[in-house]
Design brief:
Layout: H1 2-12, E1 18-23, H2 34-42, E2 45-48, H3 54-57, E3 65-68, H4 80-92, E4 96-101, H5 111-120, E5 124-128, H6 133-140, E6 154-158, H7 175-181, E7 184-188, H8 194-203, E8 211-216, E9 224-229, H9 233-239, E10 246-250, E11 272-275, H10 283-291, E12 295-298, E13 302-306, H11 310-321, E14 328-331, H12 334-346, E15 358-361, H13 364-371, H14 386-396, E16 402-408, H15 414-419, E17 426-437, H16 442-451, E18 459-462, H17 465-475, E19 485-488, H18 491-499, E20 503-506, H19 512-521, H20 525-533
Parallel strand pairs: 1-4, 1-5, 2-3, 2-4, 6-7, 11-12, 11-18, 14-15, 14-16, 16-17, 18-19, 19-20
Antiparallel strand pairs: 7-10, 8-9, 8-10, 13-17
Length: 534
């Protein structure tokens, strides 16, 4: 993937830029199209709206330039003319630009207007459709917009049209025509006009007892549903404090909302969970959590890279050249396995140079990574932590054994301390990769401050003490960490989170499946009532 991006950068000097008008869907990252995800990888710049879901934004790989053109609290929206100018400017700089819009770009997304400007300016563009909230949000809340037993047509309208200079709507809703035509009515962006919309339908002759619903933040953890009739929907929505973005549905199909309800029955429905592993290594965990109904943000707190320092690279090359001196190779992370064998290949060697060695791993995840290289681990402790691994090797290995420990430059001292308890062992601690902490992230802090207003504690997944440190560096020391719940892969990681004031739980073993078990057990419920009372 990085090779492809490098190739694109080289081509920019020779080719003009291009713009992709991309639909981000209704909010859930799982509802992104395959092409949208690919463009996230390939693009240089992403120009996005406020309706693009946080979960979707968290899937954007690092290194992409992000330009927010949505409404910011307390400020006016960026004029469409200015957005058009940004797209043209960035493309003329030779960039591959993704114009990311909530839902579908051609359904009330002003994608047609932007495409016209690009065509006029001679900028190449493509349209990448997205799943519209008009269909996805009702589906997530048990309401099919069409059903053979109820209705065979659907009409989609925006809750507000294009305003004239006098402030009046130049494209008013044709209430009488809609009532006469029948079918399901779907209104987007109509929260503030809800009372007016319902009154207009009543005046046009619709049955006041016609079922109607307003669906807030569908497909996300903030999903909320109010079902009533046309006559009383506005009052009930006000009482429930429904806020944008919401979809309004009017029609007989709303009667099915309980029968066909499915999302809220998932075990983690309504939960926001942050995964702090690097994006490319946290996908399995994220997919598992989403399958259970959670909204999952990818918030990489650290970045792991092969040793870049010249002195470290020289030391690595020296040890790789004399692997025949070592009898045992030790790994403490899956990435350590991947990095070691990658460096081995780059040095002109391969797995055959380790054929004489035995292998030790810290836990099942690392053992699985080693197995992918065609190698079974010889040593693995019952308790997946550094102390247990060191203790096991100190007990099992005979005097004179030479050990090569391939791990991070900030690896724990506990493993080495345990190995020293057997003075007959010789260990070389080789830093094959470095760990970089993420920078302070004001946007993340603001997002979490909004989340903490909910009754449920935001949940953070930590897979090492370094991810705890990196995450806290992102938020800064002033953040109220007591409003977070840390689900940790091991005791040392749990202690690091607890020191910051977070509520914590720890997996029985340091595996993804055991982390998932923590979420299934919902051990944080006891804290939720405490937060609600504050």
């Amino acid at each position: 993937m990085e090779e492809r991006r490098t190739k694109h950068k080289e081509q920019k000097k020779q080719c003009p830029g291009k713009v992709w008008l991309v639909g981000a869907g209704p909010g859930a990252a799982d509802l992104l199209t395959v092409k949208a995800r690919r463009l996230f990888e390939d693009c240089d710049c992403i120009v996005y709206d406020r309706l693009v879901g946080e979960e979707v934004l968290s899937q954007i790989p690092p290194g992409r330039e992000l330009i927010h053109v949505g409404k910011v609290t307390g400020h006016h929206s960026i004029p469409q003319e200015e957005i058009n100018g940004i797209l043209v400017r960035e493309a003329r700089l030779g960039k591959r630009v993704v114009r990311l819009k909530g839902g579908d770009p051609f359904l009330f997304g002003r994608g047609g207007e932007e495409a016209e400007v690009l065509e006029k300016e001679g900028i190449a563009f493509e349209i990448v459709p997205g799943i519209s909230s008009a269909f996805a949000v009702p589906a997530y809340q048990g309401i099919p917009v069409t059903h053979r037993d109820y209705v065979s047509g659907v009409h989609i309208f925006t809750g507000h049209g294009k305003e004239c200079k006098d402030g009046k709507d130049s494209r008013p809703v044709p209430y009488k025509a809609l009532v006469q035509a029948g079918g399901t009515l779907v209104f987007l962006m109509g929260v503030h006009a809800l009372e007016e919309l319902m009154e207009g339908l009543c005046l046009a002759g619709i049955d006041k007892d016609m079922p109607a619903a307003i669906l807030q933040q569908g497909t996300t953890a903030g999903q909320k549903k109010v079902v009533a009739t046309v006559a009383d929907l506005a009052a009930k929505a006000k009482k429930e404090k429904i806020k944008p973005p919401s979809v309004i549905i009017v029609g007989e199909v709303c009667r099915l909302h309980e029968t066909l309800s499915w999302y809220e029955k998932l075990p983690l429905a309504g939960e926001k969970i942050l995964v702090t592993r690097p994006l490319e290594r946290g996908k399995e965990l994220q997919e598992e959590l989403r399958a259970l109904g959670a909204e999952v943000w990818s918030v990489p707190a650290i970045e792991t890279l092969p040793a870049e320092d010249k002195a470290l690279r020289l030391l690595v090359e020296t040890e790789l050249a004399r692997l025949n001196m070592y009898q045992v190779l030790v790994f403490t992370s899956p990435y350590g396995v991947e990095c070691f064998f990658s460096l081995l290949l780059k040095s002109g060697r391969d797995v055959r140079d380790t054929a004489h060695m035995k292998f030790a791993v810290i836990g099942q995840g690392t053992a699985d990574a080693l197995l992918k290289k065609g190698i079974r681990a010889d040593y693995m402790p019952e308790q997946y932590d550094s102390i247990s691994l060191g203790r096991l090797l100190a007990e099992k290995l005979r005097a004179g054994t030479r050990i090569l420990l391939a791990r991070s430059a900030i690896g724990s001292e506990e493993l080495l301390q345990e190995l020293k308890k057997n003075p007959g062992l010789s260990c070389t601690d080789l830093a094959i990769y470095t760990t970089k902490f993420a920078l302070e992230n004001t946007a993340l802090m603001q997002s979490l401050m909004r989340v903490k207003q909910d009754e449920r504690l935001p949940k953070i997944v930590f897979t090492s003490s370094s991810t705890v440190e990196g995450f806290c560096r992102m938020l800064g020391c002033a953040y109220p960490y007591e409003m977070l719940y840390a689900v940790c892969i091991g005791e040392k990681t749990r202690q690091a989170a607890a020191r910051m004031g977070m509520h914590t739980s720890v997996a029985q073993n340091a595996t993804v499946s055991d982390l998932i078990c923590c979420f299934r057990q919902k051990s944080w419920d006891a804290y939720s009532s405490v937060v609600t009372k504050k």
